Amino acid sequence: MSELVSRAIRFATQAHERIDHRRKYSGQPYTDHLKQVAEIVGTVTDDQEMIAAAWLHDVVEDTPATIDDIEREFGLSVARLVHSLTDISKPSDGNRAERKAIDRAHLANACHRAQTIKLADLIDNCQDITHHDPRFATLFLKEMDALLEVLDKADPTLMRRARKTLSKCRSRLDQLAAPETQPEPVEETDHKLWSHFRHQFNGIFTAKDIAELLEFSFDADMPASQAGAILQRRNFEVATIRLEGEIKGFTTLDHLGNAGTCGMAMRPFAPDQVVTSEAGFAEVIHVLTRHDHCFVSQYGQVLGLITRGDVNKPYMRMWLFGIITLTEMRLTELIRQHYHDKDWQALLSPARLEAARKLQQERRRLGQHPDLTDCLQMADKGQLIIQNDLLFTSLGFPSKSSARKVLKQFQSLRNNLAHAQDISTYDWAQIARMANRMLE
After folding, report:
1. Which residues are catalytic?
2. Is the model's pLDDT at 248 over the cut of 50?
3. CATH number of the domain at 3-175, please?
């Protein structure tokens, strides 16, 4: 095993373990999947960059790491492979079919190395999903079939294996009896109101409210050392690069330091890296889960820049506080719908129940009319959700432990917002999760 692959294993393992990322159905560490994909790739090549990328292929989509992090740690070649394997569609791009079409086109343009890694990913996922979730497997196999049609540069041996796996999984589905009746998902009486409120809230603040103006734009033939000196003097990290008078990409101080001209240091804007000035904050955060830099365009011209540090700005903090309020309201309604007062009261400790009653008395003294459910603390509401199997699974949690972890992160974010603490470093995973839910 090469040093590159060893570092990739450590990086991927730490990134996925840090968020307690597990396989959806088995609950096993997510690294089990990464190992399988890397081993499948290893059956057709000894290309160490490909094997490293196989270990890293889900890091950008699923953890706080970005493409830029991958480049810094493993170089441009590995980073390009990981980017090719990372979905570029956004929840705002449309329904699942529309988003899958965008991601399919992205993979169709990928190199043969990336397409080969994708085959390995499909092979392992196909077997896992068919075994554990026949209902969803019907859709997944159709999507896999469509993907195989565009992976025409991939390794032929692995393509034959992928098609054989697809055929076996289809036969397995055909042989299975109709899936057992599954519990119906939780039907929220306030679902339409929640969706309406969520979409309205998404439009309150936009990218232009927090974007910083990109003050410097250099011609491609300008010496990189000269451009770097200008940025250092003005304490800027990023500038755009012009080719024949048109902005075509960007560069950073780090990239300028290793190049002769600005053109040599230029990086093109990735398709999923630019948003319009009217894009909502949720879309901005979606970009920043994949890239260090989110560029903002107006009238087709890139003029602004947003980084993760900008989530600490007042408008973003107000928006996040609003989402937290909406989420607490939603949890309260779910508890009302699926518990009677006496039922949930028996699940809380006497101390927690007494705290809720004292708050209810105080609010009634002030002329308000809350019921006891309104006076529960966030931790109490989360505990009640977790103890109802139907509720926590319907909210997308694969296990009670994962639900508890998310609840802890949610409370951390709320507390750090309330006390004006930095939220870009320690609360990023929760911010990204909340933003994604706002885009669904």
Report:
1. 61-62
2. yes
3. 1.10.3210.10
